[in-house]
Design goal:
The protein is mainly beta. Helices cover 0% and strands 41% of the residues. The protein is built from no helices and 33 strands. Strand 28 and strand 29 form a beta hairpin. It is globular and about 50 Å long.
Length: 480
């Protein structure tokens, strides 16, 4: 998602030079909240007549069942405390929130228990875990690098954004260890351990520089690589800032967002590769030298992709499914007016190192004009010989898509709730939906942690695959 500081600002419709002819951008007053380019129509003119669910209702395919839900609570209960990303280790799930993160005991998946809530304001607070460490992304300008902070203007040089490191050797008592400031903050990060296991590298994605921001200067054509020594995480530091777009990346004015950094990077450490979703560009990288990733391929789609958001490899590393976060996560883009090719997944085969487009895929269910809906975070369901992914679609719910045939992806399961309101668009829905050790876990922006099961012969073999640790942006190989 592209929200930066204030989630409660009113969304308005404005023209924008990055949008193509006849298009407008929905954005907030904060110019670092990019809502992407939508057809030049007001929301009331978007066709949602086929939407069927009302507030409080839910529906699913016959093979999917909601087993459990733990609502947001405590310091995270308010509407503006957005739930964000998820990571897993052993019997625990770690769930980000704009106000901090929550730890759940998921030993009994149908009866999860909340065991810790760490208050640490700073969007987005995406999380990753590795061994005894939890890494937290902060992508809003704060008064200091601790968890006792306030929002502070990025025009002030002393303001802070970046990564925080916690000790989770006792998951019920996370302990703050260190912080690392990074240019333009850390919208997301992806982990890639060194080949000798002694250093944990975090590839930090950030974007939207501004000449008025001392710590986020244009052109910002780079990512930050943070090295975290496993035995002395308090010594974490930025070890390199590789430039990914020496030619400037995707330019403005062609229908896709101008590239000024990356939104999300998915590393595949066992194959020494990574895929970057970088605003107006999709890239492949060689990360065999962990401190110096190198772009090996770049692709653009100025017809249908407004904002390259995230990426998922298939298990063989021969395909990449990219997502287009049209509307920035805050717009109602799942309707016939926007259509099936915008705000969708784009599936690419990797052929001789080159990305070759095969198809788009988008959920077929119309959502109402008060439901933000667009392609978002997902992970593979570990079925050997198949490419099957579970994916969040915000208020479009959760979908399972089989993209084994890259040119003919098919949905094989889904779960959806009705809108949070019929009167206004409340930002909500599934931020992340991931498969971990037999179950699907979803972090719902407003409704908290969901646990779902899928009973289908096409994915039954996945039950036998146990990850033990999962950071979907640090993709594991489930063939061993």
């Amino acid at each position: 998602m592209n929200a930066h500081d204030d989630p409660d600002e009113v969304i308005t419709e404005q023209t924008d030079p990055d949008c193509g002819p006849g298009q407008k951008k929905l954005k907030k007053a904060d110019d670092r909240f990019d809502q992407g380019c939508l057809p030049g129509k007001r929301l009331g003119q978007l066709d949602d007549s086929d939407a069927v669910l009302e507030p409080g209702e839910q529906a699913s395919s016959k093979n999917m069942t909601l087993l459990a839900n733990i609502p947001k609570n405590g310091a995270f209960a308010s509407e503006g405390s957005f739930s964000s990303d998820l990571a897993f280790q052993g019997n625990y799930a770690y769930a980000g929130n704009y106000n901090g993160f929550t730890v759940y005991d998921i030993k009994k998946a149908h009866k999860p228990k909340q065991v810790a809530q760490v208050v640490c304001p700073g969007s987005q607070n995406d999380v990753s875990v590795s061994g005894d460490l939890l890494i937290l992304s902060t992508d809003s300008s704060r008064s200091n690098d601790t968890c006792d902070n306030e929002a502070q203007s990025p025009t002030i040089e002393a303001s802070w954004e970046g990564l925080k490191v916690f000790d989770i050797s006792d998951p019920t008592e996370p302990a703050y260890v260190a912080s690392v400031e990074t240019k333009c903050g850390s919208h997301t990060h992806s982990l890639a351990p060194s080949h000798d296991g002694e250093t944990l590298y975090a590839y930090v994605s950030s974007y939207s520089p501004n000449a008025a921001f001392p710590d986020c200067q244009p052109p910002h054509d780079l990512i930050s690589v943070v090295g975290i020594p496993v035995d002395s995480p308090e010594d974490a530091s930025v070890v390199s800032e590789p430039v990914l777009f020496p030619d400037g990346g995707n330019p403005p004015g062609n229908g896709s967002r101008q590239t000024s950094g990356c939104h999300d990077i998915t590393a595949y450490p066992s194959k020494d590769i990574a895929a970057g979703a970088c605003m107006g560009d999709g890239v492949l990288m060689d990360i065999s030298d962990r401190e110096n990733p190198v772009v090996t391929e770049t692709v653009r789609d100025t017809e249908n992709f407004a904002f390259w958001h995230s990426a998922t490899f298939n298990n063989d590393g021969t395909k990449v499914l990219y997502t287009d976060e049209l509307g920035g996560g805050g717009g109602p883009t799942c309707n016939p007016t926007v259509g099936p090719e915008k705000g969708a997944d784009g599936i690419y085969d990797i052929v001789d190192g080159q990305l070759e487009f095969r198809s788009y895929w988008k959920i077929p269910r119309t959502q109402t004009n008060t439901e933000n809906c667009v392609a978002h975070n997902g992970s593979l369901i570990p079925v050997k010989g198949k490419d099957i992914m579970v994916q969040a679609w915000y208020q479009g719910g959760i979908s399972i898509v089989d993209f084994t045939d890259s040119s003919n992806p098919k949905e094989i399961g889904w779960f959806d709730r009705g809108p949070l309101s019929n009167e206004r668009l409340i930002l909500g829905g599934s931020w992340s939906a991931y498969y971990y050790d037999g179950y699907i876990y979803s972090n719902d922006i407003q409704q908290g942690l969901d646990v779902l099961t899928v009973r289908d012969p096409r994915v039954a073999s996945a039950k036998s695959v146990k990850f033990g640790e999962l950071n979907p942006q640090s993709q594991p190989n489930f063939n061993g």
